[in-house]
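Encode chain A's predicted structure.
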Amino acid sequence: MIENVEFKQIEITSIKKEKNFILNDSIEAKNLILATGWEEIINIPYIKIRPVWGERIEIKTSLSTKHHYHKNCSVSTNFDGIVKIGATHERRWSEKEPNAENANILINKAQEIVKLPKYSIYSMKAGMRAGSIDYFPIIGQIIDTDKTLEKYPQIKKGRIPKEVIYIGNLYIINGGGGRGFSNYVYSAKFLSQFLLNKTPIPEFLDTKRLFIKYARKMDK
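Encoded structure for chain A:
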């Protein structure tokens, strides 16, 4: 049974861990899920999110396409006369606005895939993606790096630990990258199944994979 849940949008400027989490010195939460995108509000040594700037355009055209194409960019199917083309990739943080120069770059890339008939640019959009180091989403519990390495220092030598020590009730879902709209759908499913039913998260998505790599580099 799905119950109605009240959602509030509040800017969080501080997080403290006492018995529970204290947000902005006023909001108390037993469980906390970090879904901050490329922005960092808690320093997690072994998890680094890379900002990837991208621009996408929408054009009005008579182009008839029944498939989604991808080469150096993506060209969507025609929906109500609108075709979406995108997106650029710049591995950096940016404040710039969408511009005609990058729109032309996307048009040229699209022309390599399909022949565009007469068109006009309907809209230009831009935003920051949150990318992980290995390009896979990051899901699961947050590891207490200091306590784990203190108890199992052999991890630095490349040994797989019998266990890791987690920060209680702290979770993350991030690093969806350029395919965030699809990646986060199954990522949220895995995380919810873990939280509700303790169903293990696949190893290639679990936060532990990044911790092992981080620990091994510390001894080099």
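Residues 180-197 form the longest helix (18 residues).
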